[in-house]
Amino acid sequence: MPKKPDAKLSKPVQLSIAAELIERRIFLIRGHKVMIDADLADLYQVTTGNLNLAVKRNLDRFPEDFMFQLTRKEFMSLRFQSAISNRGGRRYLPYAFTEHGVAMLSSILNSQRAVQMNILIIRAFIKLRELLATHTELAHKIEEIERQQKEHSSQLAAVYSIVKQLIEIPPKSPKPIGFRTNQKVVSGSP
Fold this sequence. Notes:
With 190 residues, this protein is α+β, with helices and mostly antiparallel strands. It has a domain at 9-140. Helix content is 61%, strand content 8%. It contains six helices and four strands; from the N terminus they run H-E-E-H-H-E-H-E-H-H. It has helices spanning 5-24, 37-44, 48-57, 72-82, 99-108, 112-167, and strands at 27-29, 32-36, 67-69, 95-98. A four-stranded antiparallel beta sheet has the order 1-2-4-3. The chain is rod-shaped and about 125 Å long.
């Protein structure tokens, strides 16, 4: 029986594409990394209405730090910065799900697709958290280098000033040509 090398090769490619697609759908809103209900519904291959209906049936599983509804201003800002279209129009403002809210979605959505996508989404959140930590450490190191550079710069300026003073020979006043005597010159005839 022939093997299917194409199927094995395409799965990692699909997973990497899915990871990139997921990472582009994670936004920072109210200080939280979140995903929007329509994007999650698209990934789970369900309608946004069905996703939100399942959530409403299980509201006790979604406290404010797991899910919140966007304000009109937040939604408009998100639409402009991410080029989200008004896909068929919405009657309600979208819901934003934090990493914990996405994890909770797997308990209310029972499809195999939802379970697989949740694993990928949680991994994307973890990757973003690690990248953020790396960038924060890097930013602190750069700030420290800049601070040290400023200190060294002021120290070098002081050393340069002292060396310049040592190198410069102060201008001497010109000495008169000739010599001085304490005797009075007497003029007259012999």
